[in-house]
Amino acid sequence: MNLSKLRLISGAVLLACACMAQAEIRLSDPLPLAPEVTVGKLPNGLTYYIKKNARPAQKVELRLVVKAGSILEDDDQQGLAHFTEHMAFNGSTHFKRNELISYLQSIGVKFGADLNAYTSFDETVYVLPIPTNKKENLEKGFLVLEDWAHGLKFNPADINSERGIVLEEARLGKGASDRMNKVLYPKLLNGSRYAERMPIGKESVLKTFKPEAIKRFYKDWYRPDLMAVVVVGDVEPKQAEAMIRQHFGKLKNPAKPRPRLYAEVPQRSQTEALVITDKEAPDDTVFIRYPIRAAQEPVTIADYRRQMIENLYGQMLSARMQELTQQANPPFIQGGSSKGKLVRGYESFSAYALLGKGGVQPAVDALVQEDERARRFGFSQDELDRARKNMLRNYERAYSERDKSDSAGFVAEYSRNFLEQEAIPGIANELLYAQELLPQVTLQEINETVAKVIPDQQKKLVVFMGAEPKAGASVPTQQQLLDAVAKAEQQTIEPRTEKVLASKLMDGPPAGGSIVSEKLNSAIGVTELTLGNGVRVLLKPTDFKNDQVLMGSTRFGGQSLFGDADIYNARYASAVVGSMGLKDLAPLDLQKVLAGKTVNVGASLGELSEGFGGSASSADVEAMLQLVYLYFNDVRKDAGLYQSFIGKQQDLAKNSMAQPEAVFYDAIQHAMFGDNPRVDGVPRAADFDKVGLDRSLDIFRQRFSSARGMTFIFAGSFELDKIKPLIASYLGTLPVADVPHAYRDVGMRPVTGVVKKDIYMGSEPKSTISITFNGDVAYSDEQKLTLQALGEVLNLKVIEVLREKMSMIYGGGFETSMGQHPYGHYSVALNLPTGPENVDKVIAAAFAEINKMKTDGPSAADLEKVKLNWITRQQKSLRENRYWMSQLMGSVTQGRDPAHILRYEQRVRAITPQAVKLAAQRYLDMHNYVQVVLYPERKNVAAK
Fold first, then answer.
1. 3-state secondary structure of 572
2. How many other CB atoms sit within 10 Å of the CB of residue 823?
């Protein structure tokens, strides 16, 4: 058979296969249910989802999903949907108050980080990850879910104890955003009930409600026909289904159930404007909300195709908006337009901009005109081709990771299916739809859809939100906002022109690189290479993910090598370079050239070191290495993009010190380090006047023109035989001129003794306590781990005493750190938000717990809880590329054997209560700490 006939036959076979695939997809068909998930319903109406999933091993993610949120509250129940969620941890049929948290901690489940819940307008979701290394754990986990579903006790004493905690949570949310949103939401939601039922509720109700009110909410809405149980993880589906039937089959619905209705959002009857200002607002924004419409979740394959088209034009419109920010004088700092969900069942098209120095008019002009340009002239074929490549690549990657995806992602997807009817056809079907349907989407179809979707001078809400004007400045009036939009709508619009770009980053790999030595650390499966130019490379091939390769590199030096006069140039050098691009390609041009690839690389010039961080799919490792090569050899100078970067940073920083939290953070830094010019406090607009284009570029080139002394690390799904030639070509040919590769100790040290400072800022009755213990230490890994254990056992006491017993905080706690560069040092930082009236009591209680720890040490039970949680987490981390990257990077900077990773459990188990007690005595020196307390403005402080 001759070659031409073979080609004809092959083409016919491919065509036939394509036709068969297309024939299998009928647009009118309903979207199927993913075959890998079991979905069922008990006779009482409770829905369940079950999927066996091996990642992470020996763990099951459990969820109780309830279609009951704040929207269902009666007037005397405002805030009680959320309060009910709190009471789930405060006494039930099988667990007394605080007993549940203590039990779960004893099996390695950490409160807050693992065990959690949330309440929204329309739902409450309980999150319970359970280790399955012991059979009884899973049984107890289902018992917890059952208690949440119908066994809460609502003991009056427990309710009263929890009031303070919930009120502290409400206090945390107070501030400029909360005050402004209270004005915004009634207009944004067109007077809907949603604006009247914020999940946190009303303080007057939270302080005074009777137990009968919360019991009524629980009785009315916690019922099986409004519930779903989701089980995903290392469990057999039949076993899980039997346990669901056992624990939830007995639940009964009320004889006369209240109808579960969803709030409507009325249509806007007229165009309006709204101006909202607050003296603590950090920035100025404008957005335009177009008519709200009923949202349609995909039901058929045709609906799914429609959704893909929406995602395509959304991606293209976003790219255009991003391109506007790359001008020397951009119309806004960031902005965009899109169609998105508002609340359950409703969506709208909206445009948004974070304003720069130009203010409202240029931002509105850009938003309105760019939307109109797309509506009137559509997109180009090149734009569609790039968007299609990116979308298809995302589907392919998701499919390739289908057996390496964490259970938590699946439970979130199944929860949305129950709550919002989001389709769950499964990634195999979704990839099939993308492969078959995406190529059929034409530019004409995209542009016709965009012309219908993007609003054309329809009724709208135009909103300005920002800081109260300073002397000599002003904010727009409502009429000026409306005039700005009307003016933008009348402007002449021209079609967009597309710049022609290269099709690839480099013509090919550079020649001359080599590998001169190779050795294997068989204990941890890491191969070490030495390249011909002296660059060191560590390779950790894994099967943790099917399509992920992480890259990092490090070398000592960093900002420490530059004097105080250059600190701002050094601090922002890598950001300036990143804003300008590589070769002749601006950052957005790079995105276009790399369309269809999954790759990113960034350079970083830190305080003591510099290096790269990056990631890529397995097929795009070469592109990642090309980007690294170009950072060393061909960074770009662009005065316009530099000016754009500086201008945007100044605009972002101009109101930063209007926020109490920013002033507080800045005060902590300066209380600890004085007025040292290297203190990395809150950025001010004036800081960026000290960042010069030529000098920051020169500093970057000084550190990144040579790879001498640098170690690169790769972890992920690659084959050694395939990656080594690429590494030899791109990293083995990097320049290696002689440059310093040791840091300089600049002598920056924290103050000694007891330093106390009070900050008065903010109009809300809220305070935050910061207490930091710093000092010198002879660093060791064992001491660092013991210090971490000290912080964790103290956090158990913070929850147990300051939160649950005293009801004076919602969150907060201890964080510890220990390092050996540039000198051996440690830090123990305590952060506790509370009410101004409780500051002294909270500090006294925290110090009392510190003194108990120094005198008695932790209980063996508390320390065991910490150890078990750590060991459980590390077992999961050992199957994650990011963990290996972090640990290998640490082994390089600390000069230790990377195989220490394997001794982690042994080191953890070796920590004793006595060692933690000694650590408390050593590190919590009551004669050496910095205490900074944030109070509201003095006129709002009665007791201080």
1. coil
2. 12
The secondary structure element, H or E, covering residue 301 is: helix 301-324
Q: Would you say the C-alpha torsion 142, 143, 145, 150 has a positive or negative sign?
A: positive
Closest CA to 276 of 370, 128, 177: 177
Task: Enter the pTM of the model.
Answer: 0.94
CB atoms within 10 A of CB 644: 21
> SS3 for 674?
coil
Angle CA(705)–CA(711)–CA(714) in degrees, nearest 5? 115
Residues 887-903 as b/e (b if ≥16 CB within 10 A, e otherwise) read: bbbebbbeeeebeebee
Distance CA 343, CA 69 (A): 13
Give the CA angle between residues 209, 212, 218 to the nearest 5°. 105
CA distance 524 to 522: 5
**How far is it, in rounded angstroms, from Cα 137 to Cα 129?**
10
Nearest partner of 321 among 338, 305, 308, judged by Cα: 338
Q: How many C-beta neighbours within 10 Å does residue 168 have? A: 21
CA–CA distance, 591 with 505 (Å, rounded to integer): 11
Can you give the C-alpha Rg of the chain in angstroms? 30
Nearest C-alpha neighbor of 786 from the set 603, 593, 933, 919: 919
Name residues whose C-beta falls within 8 Å of residue 96's C-beta, 6 or more positions apart in sequence: none
How do residues 770-795 score in pLDDT, each as one tens digit? 999 999 999 999 999 999 999 999 99
Q: For 448-465, how does the pLDDT look when each residue is reduced to its tens digit (9 = 90+)? A: 999 999 998 889 999 999
Distance of CA 138 to the CA centre of its chain: 29
In the 8-state DSSP scheme, what is residue 486? H
